């Protein structure tokens, strides 16, 4: 098993290490998905079905779409 690491920035962003990008065939502009099962997180290249699912949820999340929420969560 190969392990790669990356450091978080102040905005909680991380660079995906080159061995991971190569393995997942990631290119600039690609989206990634995080599958969460307990404390195990799996990173994978996002598929079109992931975007369709997310888009389908968009209208049901309107309670978090206010200016107050934008201000409260701006630094996340």
Q: How would you characterize this protein structure?
A:
With 76 residues, the protein is an alpha+beta fold. The protein has one domain (18-72). The protein is 32% helix and 16% strand. It has 3 helices and 2 strands. The chain has helices spanning 18-24, 48-58, 67-72; strands spanning 32-37, 40-45. The protein has a two-stranded antiparallel ribbon with strand order 1-2. β1 (32-37) and β2 (40-45) form a beta hairpin. The longest helix is centred in the C-terminal third of the chain and has 11 residues, at 48-58. The protein is extended, with a radius of gyration of 15 Å. It starts with 17 loop residues before the first helix and ends with a helix. The model has no long low-confidence stretch (mean pLDDT 84).
Quick summary:
The protein is α+β, with helices and mostly antiparallel strands. The protein has one domain.
